[in-house]
Write a structure and sequence with these properties.
The chain has 130 residues and is mainly beta. The chain is 0% helix and 48% strand.
Amino acid sequence: MSYSIPQTITYSIPAITLQASTATYAIRGPKGKQGRVSDVLVRCTTTVVVGVSIKGALKIGNGTTADLYGVVAPDAMTAPSAGAQSDLDAGTTVSTTVIAADTVVLCATVAATGASNAGVVTYDVVINWF
C-alpha cells in the first residue's frame, strides 16, 4: 500500500434540508484499503440561516462513535454565490483517525432546531484511501 499516492474519492450526500429529521448514509471504501477523511465541503442550494439553538450538522463516524472521523456544522451561507466551505470553517473538525480497511463509514445528519434555522445543503465527504 502506498501512503504517498492515495486514491481520493468524494462522496456526495445531496439535498439535505437542515431542519429535517435525521438520516444516516453508509459509505464503504475500496476493498482492503484504509482511509482518512481529508475534507468535508458544504454547498448550499438555498440560503442557509443558522438559528440560535442546534445548528444542522453532519457527523462522520462508525457504528460505535458517531463523530469519530469528523463533524461539519455549516455556517450561514447565501445561495448560490456561497460556493463551498471546507474543514477550515468554524464548527467543523476532521479527525486524523484512520478508517480501518473494509469498515462502513456512517454519515449521520443532525437536524437543526430552534427559530430561524433554514436551508438546503449538499455535503461532499472527501476520503483518501491507501
